[in-house]
From TrEMBL:
Ranges where the FAD-binding PCMH-type domain occurs: 184-398
Entry protein name: FAD-binding PCMH-type domain-containing protein
Matches recorded under PANTHER family: D-ARABINONO-1,4-LACTONE OXIDASE, L-GULONOLACTONE OXIDASE
GO molecular function, one term: D-arabinono-1,4-lactone oxidase activity
Bias kind Low complexity: ranges: 578-594
Xref: Gene3D superfamilies: 3.30.465.10, Uridine Diphospho-n-acetylenolpyruvylglucosamine Reductase, domain 2
Length: 843
């Protein structure tokens, strides 16, 4: 019989994060962790001032001074003496954060990390001659190196260059193992190339065509789903394909990553593929823009950090939304239809006005606003039509954000749904005294007001915290008095804080102090995370900063490797405004039944692709139009029922507490309210009232116990029902985890391919996309077979190009079963876990 002694622990536990940290002191050996006990005392003593800088400095100093734990040396030891010197001087108190920021300069090509393990097989020694500075001794040009016409041209212009032969080739690596950032995908391309120009990309694709090779692209490698290169047979050394890395392999592969730290990242790395320029309406074949809006052409290897600086310092424009991380490329954000927050904001791909891509024949082509249906289909198609080299997006004039970061009790940030009794709320989160109906109504109104009236709103709950961090703001066109946020000093502290979090995960002395108890380990990480997030207070002064800064308020996120499952579902109407045809919030596109032109499908409720005021292009696709940002105001806002959103949020929290004995979730639960989308394959498409985007994350260190937990939360979210008792369809963020999960007992990827949008799939959208791409291929001189062979992989081909049939099964965890069992055994030994705990979680 199963031991159920832990069965109700989650419900009755009253141990808060604060109590847990204070209780940790008794286990701390001052010889092993010198000063940590005093830091805990000082942090919780209201009479002892400890600011963020002092906390980070003192916490890191504990591990630097330890004679028994060498995690600090291990983590910073991978970097050159200059970086180590700055880091050590800060930790020792010789310089402050501002001085550290002034001293720091990012890696140049000649400054490679001492550790090259993450570059895997082949290593830097396989780099063929390039026009970059040689960091190490390189081999002569390999037979498989790819000639570059651009470099050859410049070599002829400058015959006196020191190494003219080096100018003839695109930088290439042989048999270099690829791993994505989330460590869910691995493969070994035959060649990995690092091009600088669109012409380099043309040369690479022509080389691939000549040698019958496939081509896929990666940037910061942030996707968890199988959107990268093909798999390969284990008996083969490689998959016979080419991987184009839009970034240098140091930035793409090595952690910690310092992209976000102060310094001139465009020197010496400026190139065609990360160029940023303003273009006119003739270039996009579209209307003139008014009110300070601009068309901006960006290279797809442009990072969010480069774009952020350009917008503030040069362009004086901004995107209305973006993802938080600066460590992502514009190409990667567009390919997988990434988004930000704000009820009036669609996805980033909705802002695309031109796509410049290299087709299967190595020819540079352009999709502009004269074919809006094709543009919407190509803006977010996972690189399946070719290698995208540049995008033109529509930018808003520069505005400021009035940031209001707050910490609220969990029960007040997003209230439980009305039908949830207080007894169902985990003990540590219940109010000390039951709320009056008036108080509950006020909390509900505050939540809905923030969700519907701010320009940006998101909610973060770190596991077992008694508070939710709420990040919301309004925009203003008044630019006076704006400050950079975070400041250089705070940026340093944020990045150093991520290193502190990694040390906390790995330090044996600290794990020993936690007695290897998952709950304690998780609460330590929550403590470190929450103390790093600001709170201006109820009557505090708002932080006025540039919108690009507000969008990227947290730097260094790249340095904490995580797993991530995210779904999108439609906001629901209240009962009084509900109709049987639109209760799920997703309309049926005309193309789903095999008719319609796909250039602006009309939903039954009169909305265009889910936009309240979308513009329908003509049947011929020749109408020049610009998409308009939907808005939810007045009666439409009043008609939204947030009970489903609240239930999804609290289902995740309760599941987290149910599994407190193992703590598979060790990073936050996050939620954003956003708009719909007109992009053909966007999961937000058809959400006429807007979208709830909700996700759970954990540390990569506990990946072995993550999947069954994430599946349980997904089962909860996919069981949500509308006012008529019908299941509300949920669809995944394409870049996050979805492959390998189940939806109502079926493989999720099969549901996504084979079911309509009302049942959580993309059947009609995929048929529409495939038809439009055939039109594009006919116009630009390539066939579906060309694109499928050159740019697809097993999963994407079977999902999008192949009509009918099953989606191919591949390994998405990057490890074989033997490795998986070994890792699971090691994790159980380390954390003292047993299988019965998993069973007891859900009985």
């Amino acid at each position: 019989m199963a031991d159920t002694s832990d069965l109700h622990h989650w419900h009755n536990s009253t141990t808060s994060v604060t109590d847990c940290i204070l209780g940790l002191k008794k286990n701390i050996d001052d010889d092993e962790l010198p000063g940590l006990g005093h830091l805990i005392d000082d942090w919780f003593d209201p009479h002892v001032p400890v600011d963020e800088e002092q906390f980070v400095q003192r916490f890191l100093r504990v591990f630097k001074q330890s004679d028994k734990d060498f995690t600090y040396e291990k983590i910073i030891g991978d970097y050159d003496d200059e970086v180590q010197g700055i880091f050590n001087d800060f930790v020792d108190g010789k310089i402050n954060a501002q001085e550290a920021a002034q001293k720091y300069r990012p890696y140049e090509t000649v400054k490679l990390p001492k550790r090259r393990g993450d570059l895997r097989k082949g290593g830097l020694e396989s780099l063929v001659p390039t026009d970059l500075s040689e960091p190490i001794s390189l081999l002569a040009a390999l037979p498989s190196s790819i000639p570059s016409r651009v470099r050859s041209f410049f070599a002829k212009l400058i015959p006196g260059s020191k190494r003219p032969k080096r100018a003839l080739y695109v930088p290439s690596f042989i048999d270099l193992e690829f791993q994505n950032w989330g460590r869910t995908v691995s493969n070994t391309p035959a060649i990995t190339c690092v091009p600088n120009t669109a012409r380099d990309v043309c040369d690479i694709v022509k080389y691939a065509k000549k040698h019958r090779m496939g081509v896929r692209v990666s940037g910061f490698r942030h996707s968890w789903s199988p959107v990268f290169g093909r798999s390969h047979n284990k008996k083969d050394e490689n998959n016979g394909d080419i991987l184009i890395s839009s970034l240098g392999l140091v930035d793409a592969s090595i952690l910690p990553n310092f992209t976000s730290l102060p310094g001139d990242i465009l020197e010496p790395g400026a190139k065609d593929l990360n160029s940023i320029i303003v273009v006119d309406n003739k270039y996009v074949n579209g209307p003139k823009l008014a009110g300070g809006k601009k068309y901006v052409r960006v290279g797809t290897s442009t990072t969010n950090e480069q774009l952020r600086r350009w917008c503030i310092d040069t362009g004086k424009v901004t995107l209305p939304m973006n993802i938080v991380e600066v460590e992502i490329t514009m190409g990667g954000a567009n390919a997988t239809i990434c988004h930000g927050a704000g009820i009036n904001n669609p996805t980033m791909s909705d802002l695309v006005r031109i796509i410049e891509y290299v087709n299967a024949n190595g020819k540079l082509c352009k999709i502009d606003m004269s074919t809006p249906g094709i543009l919407r289909a190509a803006a977010g198609c996972f690189g399946l039509i070719g290698v995208v080299t540049h995008l033109v997006l529509e930018f808003d004039p520069m505005t400021c954000a009035l940031m209001e970061p707050r910490k609220f009790p969990v029960i007040e940030a997003i209230p439980p749904p009305p039908d949830m009794p207080d007894s169902a709320i985990p003990g540590p989160l219940r109010p000390k005294h039951p709320f009056t109906p008036e108080r509950k109504a006020q909390i509900q109104q505050d939540f809905e007001t923030r969700a519907l009236t701010t320009d940006y709103a998101e909610w973060f709950w770190f596991p077992y915290s008694s508070e939710v961090w709420v990040n919301s703001w309004h925009k203003t066109s008044d630019l006076s008095g704006a400050v950079n946020y975070p400041s250089d000093a705070k940026t340093i502290l944020q990045v150093f804080g991520t290193i502190a979090a990694n040390i906390a995960q790995q330090a044996t002395a600290l794990l020993k102090a936690t007695e290897f108890i998952p709950e304690v380990q998780t609460k330590v990480l929550t403590w470190l995370a929450m103390k790093n997030l600001g709170d201006i207070g109820e009557h505090g002064k708002k932080i006025k900063t540039w919108v690009p800064d507000a969008l990227h308020f947290q730097r260094g996120v790249q340095n904490v490797r995580v797993r991530d499952l995210e779904v999108e579902f439609a906001l629901q109407p209240k009962v009084s405004t509900t109709s049987s045809n639109t209760s799920s919030g997703i309309g049926t596109t005309s193309i789903a039944n095999g008719n319609g032109n796909g250039n602006g499908s009309v939903l039954p409720n009169g909305h265009a692709n889910g936009h309240l005021n979308g513009t329908i292009p003509s049947v011929t696709g020749k109408e020049i139009t610009t998409t308009t940002t939907p808005s939810v105001k007045g009666k439409e806002a009043e008609s939204i029922d947030f009970a489903t959103v609240q239930r999804a949020w609290w289902d995740a929290i309760i599941t987290c507490y149910q599994c407190i004995s193992t703590c598979p979730q060790r990073m936050p639960l996050e939620m954003r309210i956003m708009s719909s989308s007109q992009v053909t394959l966007a999961p937000q498409r058809g959400h006429s009232l807007g979208t709830c985007s909700i996700e759970i994350l954990t540390l990569h260190e506990v990946a072995d116990i993550w999947h069954p937990y994430a599946q349980t939360v997904l089962d909860k979210w996919s069981s949500l029902k509308d006012a008529q008792g019908q299941l509300i369809p949920v669809r995944p963020h394409w870049a996050k985890e979805w492959y390998g999960y189940k939806m109502h007992g079926r493989r999720w990827e099969e549901v996504l391919k084979g079911e309509t949008s009302q049942r959580g799939g993309f059947k009609g959208e995929i048929e529409e996309w495939r038809r439009l791409m055939r039109q594009l291929g006919g116009r630009d001189g390539w066939t579906v077979d060309d694109a499928r062979f050159r740019f697809g992989n097993e999963v994407l081909n079977s999902m999008f190009w192949q009509e009918g049939g099953d989606v191919v099964a591949v390994d998405v965890d990057g490890v074989g079963k033997k490795k998986e069992k070994e890792k699971e055994k090691e994790m159980k030994k380390k954390s003292g876990l047993v299988k019965r705990m998993w069973k007891s979680c859900f009985e």
